[in-house]
Amino acid sequence: MKMDLALRKLIHAHLRTSAISMVALAALTVSTAPAEPKSDGAPNTFAEIAERVQPAVIGVISKSAEPEQIVPDLPFSDMPDEDTPDAQASKPSEKDPNVRETIAIGSGFFISPDGYAVTNSHVVKDNGTAEIRTTDKKTYSAKVIGRDPLSDLALIKVDGRTDFGYVKVAEQSPRVGDWVLTAGNPFGLGGTVTAGIVSAREREIENGPTDGFLQIDAPINSGDSGGPTLDTNGDVIGVNSMILSLSGGWAGVAFAIPAETVRSVIPQLKEKGTVTRGSIGVEVQSVTPEISDSLGADDLHGAIVTNVQTNGSAAKAGLRSGDVITR
């Protein structure tokens, strides 16, 4: 009987030790297994997106001749400059030494397989045509269908092909913090992509689009103007447009024209070559405490009219300079 009890204790101890060993082995197996990828929305690579969208991205070259002007040197300033990231070079015209030929190198992207492409208005300027280069290193002549300096958008068209790679304009606006990919033709080097995030939305900058800029931290440089800013689906959420910089190059504050502006402007350019907008016909500025005091009003808030367009809607309605709009 004693022997049986001792044997049972021995067997129990052995089984317990084996169970502990199995647990330890399981823990070891789990700890050495490859970690599962986190599903947090961050892409492991942008390679697939880049490969898919690059055939739609083009280089845009625009040439214009302007009378040569002597411009006085400007004093240095510590304030940031607003730069449009298109690479420019100029040289005396062979036909007229008093005229300089300016060459602007920017970017763009096809929005349809039959050759319609979007770029910046300041890239094509007042020219009726532009030269484009595709990622397969072919060169085409493009007609400028229309341009809108206010939004800094232009629509150009390449004829003769119906099989161009193209990208779609996104229907939804991105969130602050979303990943973005930009594509363009920096310094005329050829197709290039950079990555970053949306830093802010609806940034209001002088002479910017009416809907406000997207601020991104993806680098854009000279020659990237007009290229697409893309989401992780490869859809266009913006158009590279401007850099705010102390040095004249990318310094972390880049701006893109939002997709909603593209959706509003481009169809009008395609249909009639221009954009029609409503206008009140006034220029206003916010009423500051100082302005409120000068008007002899306490805690006055609103917009004070600084200028009224002659024969505009506001003038016909009776608004005058100095009026304050409170609601």
UniProtKB/TrEMBL annotation:
Looking up Pfam families in the UniProt record yields: PDZ, Trypsin_2
The question of whether Protease is a record keyword is answered with yes
Kindly indicate where the leader peptide sits in this chain: 1-35
InterPro entries xrefs:
PDZ, PDZ_sf, Peptidase_S1_PA, Peptidase_S1C
Alphabetized, the UniProt keywords read: Hydrolase, Protease, Serine protease, Signal
Annotated PDZ domain residues: 276-327
Q: Which domain of life is it from?
A: Bacteria
Which residue intervals make up region (Disordered)? 69-97
Q: Which family does it belong to?
A: Belongs to the peptidase S1C family.
Name of the protein? Trypsin-like peptidase domain-containing protein
What is the originating organism of this protein? Bradyrhizobium vignae
